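Appendix B, example 12.
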Amino acid sequence: MTPYEPPGGPGTEAFDAVVLAGGAARRLGGADKPAVRVGGRALLDRVLTACAGAGATVVVADPRPTARPVLWAREEPPGGGPLAALGAGLRHTTAPHVVVLSADLPFLDDETVRRLLDALQGGAEQADGVLVTDPDGRDQPLVAVYRAEALRRELARLAAEHDGLTGLPLRRLTAALRLTRITDPLASFDCDTWDDIAAARARIREHGHVLDEWISAVKDELGIDLDVDITELLDLARDAAHSVARPAAPLTTFLIGYAAAQAGGGPEAVTEAARKASALALSWADEGTPDAGPAVGTGTGQDTGPAAG
């Protein structure tokens, strides 16, 4: 995945992220909601991908394996509610802006995070934060970005007034902040029930990005953080299937990956290996045509020196 580039170019303030993932999930029967898979990926991992550009990402929950490295925090006592969890996570951040997210947002992506940051760093100079609203116009304070200074100020005030943050609802915080809003019906979709989970899983397969979702799931599962050109690899697979034989398609793409790894990895290595294999497949097909002339090398083999005289 391309690293996050803050809007506005050099000099734009960075951000950290706090992800709240320690809720009881009562409407899911107490299931481990952050670990529930949608599109082959844990809900928590999907959210972590969306905020991958953060300088530091703090997950407030008991530690667990994740697809990306994070910092872990826990409110005391555990289960103390969203404000207590936010306070625990905020202590590990240093950036001036903090993206605050729940761990049950299957369709959140980095574009929404960019929009939130753009709105706060650009047109919302007097605002303490920017949050997403759902299709019914309801605020989603856990799909938002806030100024860290404002969060710390108001959390300290609430803690002093209520002898701590345990059990306090999020609206106690948001009511005291100057907030602006953006609309994003898809990003605001959260999974509170098994029906929500089923709807999210169905949408993954219907919304026209199945291959993108599959590639993302495979990369998470294999621990690969690499942009891949799906069209390029599909073109290669097509050339191998049509020019050689259908089973050549998966075998060739496997060999492309192996070759790219041997060459040090990275998108450029994949592209170069795919180019060589595609040229070889087309050359292979040319040999089978009746008017084929002398075979011409693709430039992929080793130089064997001048021919014997």
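Strands lie at 15-20, 37-38, 41-42, 57-60, 71-73, 97-102, 129-133, 139-147, 179-183. The first helix runs from residue 43 to 50.
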